[in-house]
Every structure is written in structure tokens, then in C-alpha cells.
Amino acid sequence: MPVASVAPSSSSSSSSSSSTPILTREEVLHFLTEQLHLDRPSDAELSTPDLVLLQRVCRAFAAEVPLSTIRMLNTPLRDRALPTLEQVKQIGMNKLGGLCYETNTFLHWLLAGLGFHVEFLLGRIYGSTADNHVWNIVHNLAGGKSYLVDGGSYPMMMERLICVNDFDGNCSPVYVQSIWEVRLRRKLVDGLPGFAEEFRWTGNTAETQPQWKRLPVDSEGWAEFAEFPLVRRSQEELAMALRRIRTSQDVTIAPIRMRIYCVTYPGGRLLQVSCAFAKRTL
Q1: Are 264 and 103 in contact (CB under 8 A)?
Q2: Burial class (CB in 10 A: 0-12, 13-18, 19+), 251
Q3: Maximum Cα–Cα distance for the chain, whole Å?
Q4: Average pLDDT rounded to a whole number, residues 152-171
Q5: How far apart are CA 85 and CA 106, in angstroms?
Q6: Cα dihedral sign, 200-203-204-207
Q7: Sheet architecture: strand order including 145-149
Q8: Do 133 and 226 form a contact (C-beta atoms < 8 A)?
């Protein structure tokens, strides 16, 4: 089986998973039972967290915590500050959601608090030329497997977590997630080993392919929507990259910032409110 070797970043020698946890174990368990409506994990599950627990938490998180722009739209672009870690904690504990920085940072803390070995990744989505998205990767599950975890994903990526090191070819198996089929494809990103995320529509959607003309689509209907190198990132590196795009006047870096957008996946089904609009920054 190929090993998911995650390299340290060139600008930081420390892993994000080694930082002081923001959430206590009791806060994590309270969130799971009171906000995600899950049964409290058993002592056996907490002593050796496994894929079953990871999948259960990720599905509940996708159902309950929205990927959303709604809280920030009243703030002009130039004044949109990245939330502090304490603000991320409060946003997360109250299930207010947000963009990938808020959702994946809080999910990272949840998983670390349950005993998972989790690291941050950083990359690009929807054709951006600048890093504009955060992922988590969870290591050391049964058989040495590592799984990609994205609490701020669109298309859906958490109904069936994808293992990054259980396939030998160029592409992972195809997984049906809500209204999409998704897969990983091996790719050099910035000259480093990494992956592209690809999707194509299933028959269970009212969306139409012409809405996605800005994404290249291959002969089999696959569109690449994200790419990332397998390089671990620190919380500080994430904040530096995401702070730049949060306040940039260049809306092409992350077009979602200019849309009313809120999405969850209850029971694996897509529940979405969205509206594109133009806004002048005064």
C-alpha cells in the first residue's frame, strides 16, 4: 500500500497537530453529544479512535455545521478580518459555520481532541492562482491508512471519506457523495506530490453542466475543482494565506466571498441557499 507521506512545509518545521489544543476533551464530547447529536464515544473508541468514529463525526458535522458566507457579507472586503482562534472556537461551538478556515480549523480541533492524528493541508479551489482552501488529513488509522477530511467542501467530500493511500493507480475509486461523484487524482502541485479533487454530476441533480463552463471537463465528464500538495501546514501558515484572500480586492481569488451562500448535508443530501450578486467596495 502506498504511504501518505506528508512533507513538512519549507516555512515551518512544526506540525499543526503539535500545537496546544484549543478544545478540552470535555468540550469536544459536549459538542458531539449536544450539537452533533451523537452518542458519547465509548472509552474503547476514545482509547483507539478508528475510521468508524471518524466517519460518524464527519457526517454529523457536514449535516449540522454550514459552509456559509452569510455572517460576513455586511462587512466591506477591505474590513473582513480573519477570526481569531478564540472567535473560531465560539463560532464552532455555536454551529454558526463559515468558510473553510473556520470550519476546518474547528473540525481539526474536534478530531485532535478525540485522539486522531490530524494535520492541516493548504491548496487551491476553483481555478484560483493563490492558496485559498484548507483541508485536514487524518493519519494512522487501521493498516496505516490516511483519510482526507474537508469540513468546508463543495462538492461534498465527507459522506464517504476518501483514503489517500489505498490505491495504486492514478485515480482513487469513485465515491457517490450527495449529487456528485468524486475522486482523487494524483498530481504534482507546485512541483510536489499531491492530489487533484474531481467531480461529475450524478443523475440525482437539477443542476446542468453549462453552469460549470469555467471548469475544464474531460471526455468522461470529470471536472477538477481543487488541488493541494501533501505538505503539512501550521495554523500560522493557514492564517497568513487565508487572511490575504479574505481581505483581497481581487474577487477572482475566491468568488464565493461575493455570494450569499449557505450549505449543509443533512443525511448526505444537499441543502443549499445561494445567490450571486455584485457589490462595489467603497
Answers
A1: no
A2: middle
A3: 56
A4: 94
A5: 9
A6: positive
A7: 162-163, 145-149, 133-141, 117-125, 223-229, 192-201, 180-189, 175-177
A8: yes
Sign of CA dihedral 25, 28, 31, 37: negative
Which residues share a beta bridge with 134? 122
81: its cell numbers: 478580518
3-state secondary structure of 55: helix
Core vs surface per residue 109-143: b (16+ CB within 10 A) or e? bbbbbbbbebbbbbbbbbebeebbbbbbbbbebee
Three-class DSSP category at 237? helix
Q: Regarding predicted confidence, which is higher, 33 or 218?
A: 33
Beta carbons of 184 and 148 less than 8 angstroms apart? yes
Q: How long, in residues, is the chain?
A: 282
How far apart are alpha carbons 195 and 171 in whole angstroms? 9
Which tens digits make up the pLDDT trace of 184-238?
A: 999 999 999 999 999 998 876 555 444 555 678 888 999 999 999 999 999 999 9
The whole model's pTM is what? Answer: 0.90
